[in-house]
Specification:
The model has no long low-confidence stretch (mean pLDDT 88). The chain has 66 residues and is an all-alpha fold. The protein has helices at 2-7, 10-17, 21-35, 42-53.
Length: 66
Amino acid sequence: MDTYMRSGSLAGTADAFVCHRTTILERIARFKELTGLDPAVPWDAATIRIGFAVPPQGTARSDDAD
């Protein structure tokens, strides 16, 4: 999803993963099913981008580590 969100292109994402664009459409549909977020909806797209920016819980960012 991160690659698609960065490019905004089905064809570009498919090329990056060396697969057919239909495969990317199917993966996006599965993502929507699992998360309830649609990357085509601006508010959802912003939520997805923020989610990618936040490190997983229980992990320290390199600039936070002592």
